[in-house]
Amino acid sequence: MKNLINTSIKQSDGRTRDSAEIALSGKNKVGLFKKLIPFLGPAFIASIAYVDPGNFATNIQGGSEFGYTLLWVILVSNIMAMLLQTLSAKLGIATGKNLAEHCRNNFSKPVVYGMWALMEIVAMATDLAEFLGAAVGFNLLFGFPLIIGGILTAFCTFLILGLERYGFRPLEIAITIMLTIIAASYLIETILDKPEFKSLMYYTFVPHFNGTESVLLAAGILGATVMPHAIFLHSALTQQRIIVKNPSKLRKLFRFEILDVTIAMGIASLVNMAMLIMAASTFYKHGFTNIATIEEAHLTLQPLLGKAASWIFAISLLASGLSSSTVGTSAGQVMMQGFIHKHIPVWLRRIITIVPSLVVIMIGLDPTRTLVISQVVLSFGLPFAIIPLISFTKKKEIMGILVNKKITTFIVSIIAALIILLNIYLIYQVIFVG
C-alpha cells in the first residue's frame, strides 16, 4: 500500500513539474492559460486565510452598518496583502527554504523558540476561528448542535489533510474547489441581492467615510486583513514545489507565481467585496443596520431574499470553515518544522488544536464574539511574520537575482508599518474600548 501511495505522489507531482519545466523552457508553444496551469495552486491555498469565517463577521458588519461605503477599504487591504504574499512566495522560490527556516538560521535560539511559542498560539487562535466557523456552518445548514458540528469539522479536516499523502497537487485542487464554492455562493448571492451597480463601482474606487464609527471599522478591516500564518505557509508552499536554478527560468517562475497570487488573491478580494455587497444590498437597504452575529445574518436573509439565499450563505460559511481549518493546520506544521526542526503527526496536531474549540463550544461562548477575539490574538503575531519577511527578501546574499528592488522594499515597508499600527489599534479597541 505504501508503495502505491509513493507511486501516486511521484506521478501527481511529477506531471506538474514536467509541465512546469516545459512551460519555463518555452519549448511548447501553447496559450498562456495552459502554460499557467502547473504553477497555479500555492496562492489559492494561502488565499483561503483571506476568506475565513472571521471575514464573514467583519464584512457583514461593514455592509449592514454603512452600505457600500467601505468597499474601497477591502480593495486596498487586499492589494496590500497581495504584495506581502508575493514576497513570501518569492522567498520560497529563491532560497528553497521557508520563512520559519530562515528565522531559525538567522536568529538566536531564545528568539527562535519565543517566535515558535507565539506562532503556536497564533495557530491555535487561527484554528479556533476557522473551526467555529465550520461548526456554525453545520449548525445553520443541517441544524446540528455546535458540538456535533465541531466533531464533523474535525473529521472532514482529517479527510482533506489526508490528501497530502498523495502529493501537493490533490490538496491544492481540493482547496481550490472549496474557494470556488465560496466564490460561486457569493456570485449567486450578489445576483439575488440586485445591487446598485453605479453606487457599487463608485464606492469601490472612491474613498469615503461615514462618521467616526466607519473609520473605526475601516481600521478593523485593514488591520485584520493580513494573517501571519498565511505568510509563513506561502513560503513553504513554493520552496520545493518547482525547483529551478537557471536565472532566466527562475525569473520566469516568479512571474508565473505573481500571476498565481494575482488570480487567487483577486478572487479572495472579490469574495470579500461580495460579502459586504450582500449585507449592504439586503440588511442596510431594508434598515437592518445592527446585524451583530453570523447567525442573525443567516436568519435575516431568509425573509429578505428567500430560503435559497440562507442556504447558500450557510454553504459558503461551511466551505470557508473547512478549507481554512485545513490550511491553518498545515501552517502550524510548517511553523513547527521550520522554527524548531520538529514534526508531529498531522492527526495529533489536529487533536491538540481541536481542544480549545470544543471547550469554547461546550461552555457556550458566543461564536461570533470568539471569532473577533481570535483575530486580535492573530494581530499579536503579525509583526513577527512581516518584519523578518521584508528583512530577508531585501538581502541579495539570501535572495540572489530575486532580491527586492529598493522601491519594492520601501513600498512594502510602508504597507507593513500601516498594517502593524492598525493591528495595534484594533487590539486597543477590542480590549480597552469594547
How would you characterize this protein structure?
With 434 residues, the chain is mainly alpha-helical. The protein has one domain: Amino acid/polyamine transporter I (Up-down Bundle). The chain is built from 20 helices and no strands. α12 packs across α15 and α14 packs antiparallel against α15. It is globular.
Briefly say what this structure is.
The protein is mainly α and 434 residues long. 81% of the residues lie in helices and 0% in strands.
* Number of E strands: 0
What name goes with the CATH superfamily?
Answer: Amino acid/polyamine transporter I
Low-pLDDT segments: 1-10
Rg value: 21 Å
**Number of H/I helices:** 20
Number of domains: 1
In CATH, the architecture is Up-down Bundle
Overall pLDDT score: 84
How would you name the oligomeric state of the polypeptide chains in this document? single chain
Straight-line N-to-C gap: 55 Å
State the helicity in percent bands.
over 70%
Q: Give me the secondary-structure category.
A: mainly alpha
* Percent of residues in beta strands: under 5%
The succession of helices and strands, N to C, reads HHHHHHHHHHHHHHHHHHHH
